[in-house]
TrEMBL record:
Methyltransferase keyword on record: yes
Entry EC no(s): 2.1.1.-
Sorted UniProt keywords: Methyltransferase, S-adenosyl-L-methionine, Transferase
One Pfam family it belongs to: Methyltransf_25
Role this protein plays: Could be a S-adenosyl-L-methionine-dependent methyltransferase.
Organism: Sporolactobacillus spathodeae
Name this protein carries in UniProt: Uncharacterized methyltransferase JOC27_000824
Gene3D superfamilies tied to this protein: Vaccinia Virus protein VP39
Sites where the protein binds S-adenosyl-L-methionine: 53, 74, 96
Family according to the record: Belongs to the methyltransferase superfamily. YrrT family.
Length: 213
């Protein structure tokens, strides 16, 4: 489920770290302040952390730097290889937002960066239902991901990408499942979380969602 983009990530793995460092003009704005964005997620994580979509392990590294215990889940074999090269001490397991081996210890924080948009809104809701059951009572979710503040803003960003001639980016924006902020708010509330949103660059928002008990 939500795995339709994996072959693209297998192909991207070798040069993913170059893309996030701003070398790809089309994606420069998406990854603007990349390191600060990951740091913002790591700062809000606590306790035992379950990370989805580790990619090459950049957020994982920051979480470990904060002294946290991390269980990494990543569906792309090539991305898992890259993460293992970077962090030899950690095992990132094969899995995705909806299907993953149960963590061995109670989980206090679920994190992810640049990945939750791979799920449809229906899948996002199912994932949040799972996470509500999995998290400890004062648990939280901390995500950083692209979303649109509202439908006018979505149109403005599409127009911006079209005007710039960023057609690969435009295709991504049109084919992946980037939500409107209000819709995502409702999905979190429906599944027992109180979300807070903060914009970090033109595309990416920090989402901190506390579990309601
Ligand atoms: C844009 S990369 C982000 C990697 C890393 N988190 C970062 O911040 O650089 C998206 C990652 O999500 C993974 N992914 C794709 N579909 C997924 C799914 N359904 N569940 C979990 N991860 C997924 C991809 O394989 C890829 O490693």
């Amino acid at each position: 489920m939500g795995r339709e983009f994996i072959s693209a990530f297998d192909k991207w793995a070798d040069y993913y770290d170059q893309s996030v460092s701003g070398q790809s003009p089309e994606y420069r704005e998406v990854f603007a302040n990349y390191s600060d964005i990951l740091e913002a997620v790591a700062e809000k994580a606590r306790g035992k952390v379950l990370e989805f979509g580790t990619g090459t392990g950049n957020l994982t590294t920051k979480l470990l730097d904060h002294g946290l215990t991390v269980y990494g889940v990543e569906p792309s074999a090539k991305m898992r290889e890259k993460a293992k090269e970077k962090i030899s001490t950690i095992d990132v397991v094969d899995g995705d937002f909806l299907n993953f081996p149960p963590p061995k210890q109670p989980i206090d924080t679920i994190v992810s960066s640049f990945a939750f948009h791979h799920l449809t809104d229906e899948e996002k809701g199912r994932a949040l239902g799972l996470y509500h059951r999995l998290l400890t009572d004062n648990g939280r979710i901390v995500f950083a991901d692209t979303l649109y503040d509202n439908s006018l803003e979505k149109q403005r960003i599409f127009n911006w990408a079209r005007t710039k001639g960023y057609l690969a980016l435009l295709k991504d924006l049109q084919t992946e499942y980037y939500p409107l902020r209000g819709d995502l708010y409702r999905i979190f509330r429906t599944h027992g979380f109180i979300p807070y949103f903060k914009q970090l660059n033109q595309f990416v928002w920090l989402i901190i969602a506390e579990k309601e008990v």
